[in-house]
Write a structure and sequence with these properties.
The complex is a heterodimer of chains A (351) and B (279). Chain A has helices at residues 12-20, 99-113, 119-126, 175-182, 193-208, 216-224, 230-239, 245-249, 294-313, 323-327, 334-350; strands spanning 4-8, 24-30, 36-40, 66-73, 82-85, 92-98, 128-133, 159-163, 167-172, 188-189, 256-263, 266-273. Chain A is α+β, with helices and mostly antiparallel strands and 351 residues long. The longest helix of chain A is centred in the last third of the chain and has 20 residues, at 294-313. With 279 residues, chain B is of the alpha/beta class. Chain B has two domains: 18-104, Elongation Factor Tu (Ef-tu), domain 3, CATH 2.40.30; 111-238, Rossmann fold, CATH 3.40.50.80. The radius of gyration of chain B is 19 Å and the shape is globular. Classes of the chains: A alpha+beta (351), B alpha/beta (279). The structure holds flavin-adenine dinucleotide (FAD), iron/sulfur cluster (2 copies) and FE2/S2 (inorganic) cluster.
């Protein structure tokens, strides 16, 4: 089957309705305020596709904020307790995801599936199909362009669509994506020369619309060369409110905590998002390297994303989605820090 | 998926604990107990590794193995009561079940001690992870050279494995004990474990050290051994960190580029110096 196809816009909702027969449909919807959230879609016409970034990122469908893990019931006449694995197995399609969030998935896969395989992530991942959309008009906070993680993707997606006005340019990037298209192949037609040209046009105009040009490689280099001193990190730490907004909204933050809760017949073990910016994160009964000082915690977040992520997972722990810029009350988000450090480097050179 | 762990040998979900049965509990000191746990099938592990122990409703904690693997599938774990989960473990009785996942972590490097003298430095509960190492040296006494154990406790009553220490001595291990605070019956050393270096009849430059205890003790011991001429790569220690998963995912034990749970918990002084970007 062709990897590139055209879908008439009028056929989109029919296509989605067909997919929804087999999978739960998730997409960007406007909530009560003006925020965009990914939710289960009831009315397909309510999907908002030309929208700012969702908060939080769609990672919540593969690594949710609250995830039941196990249920333990003590059967009275049984020697061993009965344990139920609560792994979520719902088949889902997530429609309208941005390129940066798909790029983040690639790294999340490497993180959760390498070494000891995280079973909960693996189950959800396997059952979720992503239909991503090329960003025509990036938000002022976006900076994926400097990282190669957006506004469109060359690979790593299941299905990628580009809005060409009255039709979508559809690209298939995975076997699961191919299956989903093939099942309704009558809806699609082969692209013409003009379709390719129009798609290229969208790519070009999108690239020209970025406000932010951020070079994380340069910042990484500065840190490695020890040009960023501790008083800078102190300044950063002093501005952090410890709200955790950056971590919760970031498509690449992966930390969690585990806790047991009672339910009527026994105990449920659940996991919840946790944030390394929080004080008690490394708390323990007298350990050797507690990161209890705020300066260490903020520094650790940046080191993890800029230094260690590339070394262990092959890419920055940031895809330039701009969510931390939207959310951080202290203005010490990734983009602001990078800009600030670049400024410092320039003034240093001028001295 | 229902999962009656009795039959669950292939553990697909890494977060599901295996069921262990408590066979024996020994009160070692006021707040330390030794739990002998039997698993359905024997689990293989090496000294320095740890298990995540579960008490349903309380939670999970990392505990180092305190014994060598047994053919009959028993594991000994030496646990000090300090908080919620460890108290819940202490309230369990013989015959009750306990969940365990593991073994996790890298374990002590043993090859580097081949043909070399060994110095073991323990502080308090830190003796527990070193116990299987000592048992191993006794079993294969020809592999390593002279083995010396320096062991510090707060008081004479808090010396864990006191009877065994005597047996170890009889098996040829040189032992020096010290306490922070003695009592009327105590005739031995008083003071820090790092005050015991003169007791060691070994060429420090050629020896290997395995250290386990509170962080202040670890730091002091590593630094002293470095100044006594021991190369960094032969100064070995095991670190503690807050742990929620034990498998490199939850992020709690992440210190700079390393996850204590999967890259450690055993590290050489060399690694500690080179890799802890965040000092
Ligand atoms: C690799 C490793 C091996 C260990 N081996 C042993 C051992 O053999 N014997 C022994 O008695 N203790 C050992 N500990 C320490 C033991 O794990 C803690 O005493 C225990 O987690 C405290 O839990 P709690 O719920 O009783 O205490 P609380 O203070 O109520 O702690 C609540 C939670 O905080 C975390 N936490 C608190 N302190 C620590 C700590 N020191 N290390 C890790 N997590 C902590 C745990 O997640 C715990 O569930 C080891 C720790 C590590 C990291
Ligand atoms: S660090 Fe900020 S900009 Fe980068 S991916 Fe995370 S939330 Fe987005
Ligand atoms: S969003 Fe900003 S203020 Fe809040 S925890 Fe993150 S860095 Fe700190
Ligand atoms: S304990 Fe979870 S990452 Fe190490």
């Amino acid at each position: 089957m062709k990897k590139e196809l055209i879908l008439d816009k009028n056929n989109l909702s029919y296509w989605l309705r067909q997919i929804r027969k087999k999978r739960e449909l998730i997409g960007p919807l406007m909530n009560g305020g003006n925020d965009i959230v990914f939710k289960s879609v009831d009315k397909i016409h309510e999907l908002v596709l030309d929208c700012p970034a969702s908060l939080p990122s769609p990672k919540e469908f593969i690594f949710p904020q609250y995830e039941p893990m196990l249920r333990i019931r003590q059967a009275s006449n049984v020697k061993y307790q009965e344990i139920t694995d609560l792994s979520e197995k719902t088949r889902r399609v997530i429609f309208g995801v941005r390129s940066c969030d798909i790029s983040a998935l690639g790294l999340l896969d490497r993180f959760y599936l390498k070494g000891h395989k995280d079973s909960y992530y693996a189950e959800r991942r396997r059952n979720t199909l992503f239909i991503s959309i090329v960003c025509k008009d990036p938000d002022p906070t976006c900076f994926c362009i400097g990282l190669g993680t957006g506004p469109y993707l060359e690979k790593g997606f299941d299905i990628q669509i580009t809005d060409l006005g009255d039709r979508y340019f559809v690209q298939i990037g995975s076997p699961e994506g191919a299956k989903t298209v093939k099942a309704m192949s009558f809806l699609f037609r082969r692209p013409q020369k003009t379709d390719y040209e129009d798609q290229y046009e969208v790519f070009l105009s999108s690239k020209a619309r970025f406000h932010k040009r951020i070079n994380l490689k340069g910042i990484r280099q500065m840190i490695l060369e020890e040009k960023v001193k501790d008083d800078f990190w102190q300044w950063v730490a002093d501005r952090c409110f410890e709200c955790g907004g950056c971590v919760y909204n970031c498509p690449l933050c992966t930390c969690f905590t585990v806790t047991d809760r009672a339910y009527s017949e026994g105990t449920e073990r659940i996991r919840l998002w946790d944030a390394c910016m929080f004080k008690g994160f490394t708390r323990m009964a007298g350990g050797i390297l507690p990161n209890e000082m705020m300066v260490k915690r903020t520094k650790r977040w940046y080191y993890h994303k800029l230094i260690h992520y590339p070394e262990t997972l092959g890419g920055f722990g940031c895809v330039g989605c701009g969510r931390c810029t939207i959310t951080c009350p202290g203005k010490i988000d990734m983009a602001s820090i990078a800009t600030k450090l670049k400024g410092l480097a320039i003034s240093e050179e001028e001295k | 998926m229902k999962n009656n762990l009795k039959n669950n040998k292939t553990n697909a979900n890494i977060y599901i604990p295996l069921n262990g049965k408590i066979e024996e509990i020994t009160q070692l000191t006021g707040d330390v107990r030794l739990f002998k746990i039997k698993t359905e099938t024997p689990i293989d592990y090496v000294p320095g590794q740890f298990f995540m122990l579960s008490v349903w409703g309380a939670g999970e904690v990392p505990i180092s193995v305190a014994s060598l693997p047994e053919k009959n599938g028993t594991i000994e774990l030496c646990i000090r009561k300090t908080g919620i989960v460890t108290s819940a473990i202490h309230s369990l009785k013989t015959g009750q079940s306990i969940g365990l996942r593991g073994p996790y972590g890298n374990g002590f490097p043993i090859d580097i001690s081949k043909g070399r003298d060994v110095i073991l430095v323990a502080g308090g509960i830190g003796i527990a992870p070193l116990r299987p190492l000592i048992q191993q040296f006794i079993k294969n006494h020809r592999k390593a050279g002279k083995v010396t154990l320096l062991y510090g406790s707060r008081t004479p009553d808090e010396i864990i494995f006191r009877d065994e220490v005597e047996e170890w001595e009889e098996s040829g291990i040189a032992v020096a004990l010290t306490v922070d605070k003695g009592n009327d019956n105590w005739k031995g050393n008083v003071g820090l474990v790092t005050g015991l270096w003169p007791e060691v009849r070994t060429d420090f430059k050629e020896a290997v050290a395995y250290i386990c205890g509170p962080d202040v003790m670890i730091k002091a011991a590593m630094r002293d051994l470095f100044f006594l001429g021991m190369p960094d790569e032969r100064i070995i220690t095991t670190l503690e960190a807050h742990m929620k998963c034990g498998v490199g995912k939850c992020g709690h034990c992440y210190i700079g580029p390393q996850y204590i749970c999967t890259d450690g918990p055993v590290f050489s002084y060399k690694e500690i110096k080179e890799q802890s970007i965040l000092k």
